[in-house]
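Appendix B. Extra example for self-study. Work through it before the problem class; the solution is given directly after the inputs so you can check yourself.
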Amino acid sequence: MLKFLTAGESHGPALICIIEGLPAGLKIDVPAIDAELARRQKAPGRGERMRIEQDTVTVLSGLRGGVTLGSPLTMQILNRDYVNWEGSMHPHRPSTGQKVTCPRPGHADYPGMVKYGFDDARNVLERASARETALRTAIGAVARQVLRLKGVEIYSRVSALGQLTFDAVAETPEAYQRAQAHPFSENESQSQAAEELIASCRATGVSVGGVVEIAAFNLPIGLGSYVHADRRLDGRIAGALMSIPAVRGVEIGEAFALAQSPPGAPADSLRYDTERGIYYVGNANAGLAGGMTTGQPLVLRCAVKPLPTLAPAMTVDLATLLPATPVRERSDVTAVPTVAIVAEAVLAWALLTALLEGPARL
Amino acid sequence: MLKFLTAGESHGPALICIIEGLPAGLKIDVPAIDAELARRQKAPGRGERMRIEQDTVTVLSGLRGGVTLGSPLTMQILNRDYVNWEGSMHPHRPSTGQKVTCPRPGHADYPGMVKYGFDDARNVLERASARETALRTAIGAVARQVLRLKGVEIYSRVSALGQLTFDAVAETPEAYQRAQAHPFSENESQSQAAEELIASCRATGVSVGGVVEIAAFNLPIGLGSYVHADRRLDGRIAGALMSIPAVRGVEIGEAFALAQSPPGAPADSLRYDTERGIYYVGNANAGLAGGMTTGQPLVLRCAVKPLPTLAPAMTVDLATLLPATPVRERSDVTAVPTVAIVAEAVLAWALLTALLEGPARL
Amino acid sequence: MLKFLTAGESHGPALICIIEGLPAGLKIDVPAIDAELARRQKAPGRGERMRIEQDTVTVLSGLRGGVTLGSPLTMQILNRDYVNWEGSMHPHRPSTGQKVTCPRPGHADYPGMVKYGFDDARNVLERASARETALRTAIGAVARQVLRLKGVEIYSRVSALGQLTFDAVAETPEAYQRAQAHPFSENESQSQAAEELIASCRATGVSVGGVVEIAAFNLPIGLGSYVHADRRLDGRIAGALMSIPAVRGVEIGEAFALAQSPPGAPADSLRYDTERGIYYVGNANAGLAGGMTTGQPLVLRCAVKPLPTLAPAMTVDLATLLPATPVRERSDVTAVPTVAIVAEAVLAWALLTALLEGPARL
Amino acid sequence: MLKFLTAGESHGPALICIIEGLPAGLKIDVPAIDAELARRQKAPGRGERMRIEQDTVTVLSGLRGGVTLGSPLTMQILNRDYVNWEGSMHPHRPSTGQKVTCPRPGHADYPGMVKYGFDDARNVLERASARETALRTAIGAVARQVLRLKGVEIYSRVSALGQLTFDAVAETPEAYQRAQAHPFSENESQSQAAEELIASCRATGVSVGGVVEIAAFNLPIGLGSYVHADRRLDGRIAGALMSIPAVRGVEIGEAFALAQSPPGAPADSLRYDTERGIYYVGNANAGLAGGMTTGQPLVLRCAVKPLPTLAPAMTVDLATLLPATPVRERSDVTAVPTVAIVAEAVLAWALLTALLEGPARL
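Solution. Structure tokens for the complete assembly:
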């Protein structure tokens, strides 16, 4: 069964992941993985650190001459910033870093300190950092290359940035591909409004949320299964997307709007003709029915919250028990465009996992 | 590690589940499990079958004298309707049932037939049926009893039924408990409107969706973890909720609304006083930060779709390849109140799983 | 991924298992499962209880008209003895049974009581009982039917009973099939000696151990894998066999003898001819190399201990802290012939699990 | 739940492992990990490669200032030999290496080629190599440090090398510690005979097997469980030990000898006195009963086969289908002393996994 482990602190020596369960004989294009990492780093709204890191993947195992061996595949991303943090973050030399004793209330800091018994929030925030999504992007980049062999294509776009919404995109790979050529929208004035919003957020030190849309095309029918709760693809995808930091909502199609519509919703039909065989007409299922792909475009949306680092919160200095202002770790103005790219990767992984399950029939 | 398997076809002899990993020495109240099953069956909007089934649990293992043994706990719910279906559904005698060859487009039917190579949609729909949620309700009822030993309380309510929305409820157990005494709302006229909507749907043969809200109180801080993607409680909960049939969206707090708000969202603070120690002020986190509980009320919302069985779809008779009208299996008018109860159960399970993980510190 | 859960106390209402992950469309012969249960119950050396139980399986899910649905398959074996134990063992009524306070030192009793905090060893021994192997036999009987579709055959025999050893059997399905027609050996005098040994053990109230040999034929090449420690078939099989109660040793081929031989062991060769293609000559690998099947006969041996119930041990009455004689639960004189049958089943499961893994190559 | 993934080809850039699920706050001594790697490399009987590699671990995550963070712990061992193999083994540059087309019959080579569809056995042997046990040694070294906090000590010794057997060792940590100071035996003449045997094997190019004994002391009672087959510690340990390359047999205590003894085996007793409380007298259980630790010394034995690389086998050149002599990869004369060290590590991991399971009682 396909699985992975990721590892690495945000300012530690490196990020590392191991993927176990890949079939043998797959050509993997390493520069294409790096290209996904670059997309993630150059997404609008990123903060200063992105000028320091230029993530590239070093493959350490599982690949020979660019082809998978069937053995575990390791990817490593060195943290270039580590040299500046070695005193504080060295794995086994005593830390010379100052303790972070003022947990940020919108983050993992405080529950993490309580859970693990730390008096230094750095012990939490280093791993809770969204930097881990670089690895998930890399893992998804591998998954996507495998899916592409089956014709599957995955795209994303930002569909709302705060109160701004962007023109809808037709459910075709071509339309999404065109949309992806622009950071927000093919519509010039919408795109400009988004960039102005980000600039204004950066100037005033506030963050903005938004909605991302992810779409997958040319999927085989029947990925996932209804036979057991944990094999339903809807649940797996939702779980994976919601585990992306800053994602706080997931819907299949426009589920929340549909839930609040008058009775009698739109419905798909099945039709037959000799040329196409049996096919769905319409996509009210948004590509998922009964926990399985229908073969129609799969469309998902994630609600992304404004980044809590920039929120106007107060905290307590745990060393003194006095009120304090949370330390501001370097941060982005908005995670929305970044999450879009990570969400593509996460979806690719969930789909590949379903694709590589054991046989449905002997 | 806590885990379960469920089994059972909708019109087969029985539904069965096994829970593995429960601690020993826990008092389990079996009638209280049945009470949850009854709540599920009597939820507004249910169809005819509920007059046939009166689900009760038979515990077959794992319990002795009402106390867990630490061994696998089996619960069985007999399908009373099986006597009427034995000819078609007997496990090993040849089936005398007529094949269902007209898959319903909004269901698992067609992708299931393709995936598993069936020419009879009954082979799919029997297991894809939401009847499986009776087991998940029973499993959750067990989990909830264990959580209650730690003071944890879980409630739900319908917050919207189609275009009707119901008054918000304060984030306290008392307020939710009061709200749960009414099928939809303490507000008489809202409740009446909901019942009228359901009656009208039943009369016209259409279905309506809605939104359910689930809330958990008195949670310990630090359930779940940020250390690995698959251990984040947000992802696990979302995955579990989305795997409930008819659920198509999940959000933590009001995530989609927040995502589309102006920059600069509300934020929690941490405060200290000698009496309460360190505590959160506010609940912008909706009880979850960094993939962990904050100890504040955990508030989740699910978008529930109108039931596709009642949708105006066409299909293909796979035996003749001619256009056909999908067979209508007996069905509910709306799944929303039922999903609310199942969602409580599913959440209870996810929380218990997190509670029973290995030690965070030796 | 193929998996199962088993449940049930030895004197509780029933034994139940759920298998998840079976492909759809497989014909399952339920009487053939019962036949395996009967073989297990009628194995030489069994005790009194076997006159009470006549195990038969009731399939409650996952099968329709004798064909797998791809959904979880449930098998239930009612404990006929439960009527005599209901007062003590009822799942939720208060137990009227007398506590077992004198743990048997060779069993799970005492460590189980300490681990789970019990003052009644019955809470342990009911689940720790080898009665659970009835379920594993049933599960293996299903696995074996699936394997047989691929031509795989599994046999076992007792190769030693205490100091008696039985004539070796050629590594062919025919030879094993012939050997299986006799409880111990085709050699009349050896067989008679074994039966006399059992009779003498029964008369004197002692137990005897032995060695069982399990062999699988017509295996495809490449089941299992070297790519990760937990995917090696040797480890999986050894783990499964060693988890059979009374099994205390496992070897592939004659590993312990080989380990203590002069340097320079026998070796297989690979050869090619046009008719057979590439094939192994010899079976020094005993069918397993690099954690994978070689396609040659797979030969395993298990060391089975004498049953500790009949051992001359003293214990402590935990209620009084005084020395005591352990209570003798009804028991068999020797587990060896029974273990042989359970081991076949356990091996079948391990092989099927490997067979149903995801694709090695897309 | 504690888990790990390992990765790395034998002549690839590096070996890497990630451990997930370690508690926070544990002091880890990195040089002590390296010391275990050195023990493994300097074990008698190793081949030439050990002069090239000097394995040391680089910790890349999960540790800060020498203390676990609760996050995934990564260890990397660079393959110094990689510089000599880069042309052949580079992960993504086209390989300039010559294909290995003559699979060695006693290894993973041929079944691996068939399973994964390779025409170059190097694609198999690089990962199937026992070099992976360096990582398992490192993982076990971490586990052992954690266990030591609870007082648990693990030792091993070679108890037989081919036909040579070495004096038994008392079941005490002190006796094992003394024995471990010698490569084979405290008995001078036995030790010398062993070294002469190895020298003679090396001279004549043959390999010898043997038996290793692993013992763990000061274990808590009740690690593992009887409640489900896959939670039995006997099964888990056997599975883990058997997955060490070259291990072909595993027994608890002297199981095979006991199985072939006269009826009526030795038995442990339980006794009580005010000073020690309740305790076992004797260790016929060899530390394991009912799938759980008894708290008595845990004693295991593994049968290790002669290394097949040095076996007199013929093979087929798959490129030409002509008979051929298998290529001899650099190899050891005997794996026995090395396996002893790896087995300690593997046992440490299995014990730690059991120790870190969820609570048996709330």
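Self-check: Chain D touches chain A through 49 residues (CB under 8 Å). If your reasoning did not lead you there, revisit section 3.
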